[in-house]
Design goal:
The chain is α/β, with parallel strands linked by helices and 313 residues long. Helices cover 15% and strands 28% of the residues. α2 (84-95) runs parallel beside α4 (126-138). The radius of gyration is 19 Å and the shape is globular.
């Protein structure tokens, strides 16, 4: 048991390569399509399906399957209150998505995945914690990666590569799991803070931009802003190309956030533009890196399903 908990120590950086790409001779490019072109101006993209807060209610079915994508991102709350049978059902749903790679983080409702929460609230159920975490980690053989907090790099089979900063933590709320206090800043301070240059920030909770009245991706049932300003500071600092999250179901939506840099005041929000929830593919252009971020609250709420995002590399 001691050895297991030692193995749960969070690593700040993980690199995963699914397989070594096979290099074909140059004439093949005139015969078969490829995401790469044999020129100096190579253009490719990665298609993501982002979702969150499914709570055991998968939004797709055999008659209405999820769209085929390169990568599935699930931003937590796979279950209502945890439990190994619930995690197993959630993984079966995730397996049904036609995607080479599937990335999953926990949410505050996924109780048994948080060792600290179990030790404090259900110490008699540490065996359940062990079983749940072990099960989630074992899904890597199915292309499903359960991510610890920190920065991870992934390479698809054909060589396309991207980096992800992941964190399941949210501000303390009603005694749920993966919580942090008001004064804690885990996103900007410490070994597992969000790293500059990361392509995607993937958190369970939303950021809070208090000075921008247009922003409401973090509102609760009563319209109150419940996001984290420290997370917003990290997003402002890192300027990822995509930040996906959930947690606040009523805040479901997507916005393009423009950044401006000033020598005196640093990075500030220059603009915020809503994107309609119509199921269309949202494109994140390569030349927008550093000047614009796409923010997506992918929580399941109402008739909406996952958000499709094309990240141009």
């Amino acid at each position: 048991m001691k050895a297991f908990y030692t193995s749960l120590t969070v690593l700040s950086s993980t690199k995963v390569r699914l397989s070594t790409p096979v290099r074909s001779p140059s004439p093949i490019y005139s015969i078969l399509p490829s995401p790469y072109r044999p020129t100096s101006n190579m253009v490719s993209s990665v298609r993501f399906l982002t979702t969150s807060d499914t709570h055991g209610a998968w939004p797709y079915s055999s008659s209405n399957p999820a769209p085929k994508v390169d990568v599935l991102l699930h931003c937590g709350d796979l279950t209502q209150v945890g439990g190994l049978p619930s995690f197993k059902r959630a993984i079966e749903d995730i397996k049904s998505v036609d995607a080479e790679l599937k990335l999953v983080i926990a949410g505050n409702h996924d109780l048994e995945l948080d060792e600290s929460w179990v030790r404090e609230n259900m110490p008699e159920d540490m065996a359940d914690h062990l079983a749940c975490v072990t099960f989630m980690k074992e899904q890597k053989i199915h292309g499903i990666h359960y991510l610890d907090e920190g920065t991870h790099t992934f390479t698809l089979q054909d060589g396309r590569q991207f980096s992800v900063y992941a964190s399941p933590y949210t501000p303390e709320f009603n005694g749920y799991a993966f919580a942090y206090g008001k004064e804690e800043d885990r996103f900007n301070i410490g070994a597992n803070s969000a790293a500059a240059g990361v392509d995607i920030v993937m958190t369970h909770g939303p950021p809070l931009f208090p000075v921008n009245q247009e922003y409401d991706l973090d509102v609760g049932q009563d319209g109150t802003h419940c996001g984290c300003e420290k997370l917003a500071n990290a997003v402002q600092r890192v300027k990822p190309r995509l930040h996906c999250f959930g947690h606040l179901h009523e805040g479901r939506g997507a916005m393009r956030v423009g950044w401006t840099d000033n020598a005196q005041s640093g990075t500030k929000v220059a603009s915020m533009k809503w994107i309609e929830d119509e199921g269309a593919i949202i494109t994140v252009e390569r030349d927008s890196a550093g000047s614009e971020s796409l923010l997506v609250n992918a929580a399941m709420h109402g008739p909406g399903r996952g958000w499709l995002v094309d990240l141009i590399l």
